[in-house]
Specification:
By secondary structure, the chain is an all-alpha fold. Helix 14 packs parallel to helix 15. The longest helix is centred in the N-terminal third of the chain and has 31 residues.
Length: 327
């Protein structure tokens, strides 16, 4: 049951930008064995215990991802400000867990933290000024990036997909597959191959880095976590193409009315999607109602409380729990 719960929590976490799947499995006490098991499989050593362990955790995570992908897309569309405020809180709530692991903080650790923040600031700036194409090569690289961050405690793989502009594309493809739309495989197959390769490389690299450079490595992760907040400003975020495509015509009309977008007659789903995107990209000055700010602040506090509590449920000695036996 512990493996099932850990897998379910990991799957849910990897759907939500700002929440780390690694933190979830660390909190339930199966992190070390997860890293060791993945590393063992990639070294082509197959034991029944290892296969059973990964089978239970992996299938539980997959069930959570497939069953909840549509729900996440719905919430991101209708309650964008509240959801992204929640993501900020969930992200910041992971900092105490990693901070406890680097105390006392030395000079090299501080440099690693600053480097992590700088990297995430660069990614956020790239997202703001650049449109990343949607193609097979990008899907493959997104799988690698998502996997590399997916199992690191405190670092959210789905957040990386978000800043790369791939989040709703991948989540939407998973939801399409749930509805037996096989065209989604054009996204999921290269993404899955990249994720498998990233996990194989990461599991072995992580063992080495945590064994040889533990505090510096965790310090860099802490910097990534803090810097990730820069790309999660919650208000008036542009709706993505996939999130718009998933909504009904009535939902699109309500959304346009709520944001002051005048739709042309006759109403057509495809035309509505195109007009909303065009209107948003042409630049809009929108005043944020005080009620929306207050609700977003409440969700930020809620997210902070959730991951802070999960961090407190993790082992009492974080350094030993993050270290990996290399024997």
């Amino acid at each position: 049951m512990r493996l099932v719960v850990g897998g379910l929590l990991m799957g849910v976490a990897n759907l939500i930008p700002g929440v780390s799947g690694g933190t979830m499995i660390l909190a339930v006490g199966i992190y070390n064995e997860f890293i060791e098991s993945v590393a063992e499989i990639t070294a082509l050593r197959f034991r029944f215990r290892t296969l059973a362990f990964l089978g239970i955790v992996g299938s539980s995570a997959a069930i959570a991802v497939v069953s909840l992908s549509g729900v996440i897309l719905y919430l991101l569309f209708h309650y964008s400000s509240s959801m992204f405020a929640l993501f900020i809180g969930l992200t910041l709530g992971g900092t105490p867990l990693l901070y406890r692991s680097v105390r006392p903080v030395g000079g090299r650790c501080i440099v690693a933290v600053v480097a992590g923040i700088a990297l995430m600031a660069g990614i956020a700036a790239l997202k703001t000024g650049t449109t990343i194409p949607h193609n097979m090569a990008v899907d493959l690289c997104s799988g690698v990036a998502g996997a590399v961050t997916m199992i690191l405690p405190g670092i959210s793989g789905s957040y990386i997909l978000l800043v790369l502009g791939q989040y709703d594309r991948v989540i939407g493809a998973i939801d399409d597959l749930r509805h037996m739309n096989l065209a989604s495989l054009r996204v999921l197959v290269p993404f899955g191959l990249g994720a498998a390769g990233g996990l194989a490389v990461l599991s072995n690299a992580l063992k080495h880095l945590l064994h040889r450079y533990e505090k510096i490595t965790i310090g860099f992760l802490l910097g990534l976590l803090l810097g990730s907040v820069l790309g999660l400003w919650p208000f008036e975020r542009q709706p993505t193409e996939k999130s718009l495509e998933k909504r009904s015509l009535d939902e699109l009309v309500h959304f346009a009315d709520r944001h002051g977008i005048a739709l042309a007659d006759p109403l057509d789903h495809e035309a509505c999607v195109a007009q909303i995107q065009t209107d948003w990209q042409n630049g809009r000055t929108v005043s944020i109602p005080p009620r929306e700010k207050a609700v977003a602040a409440g969700f930020l506090v809620l997210g902070l409380a959730i991951t802070t509590l999960l961090g407190r449920l993790s082992p009492a000695e974080p350094q030993s729990s993050l270290s990996v036996d290399t024997s």
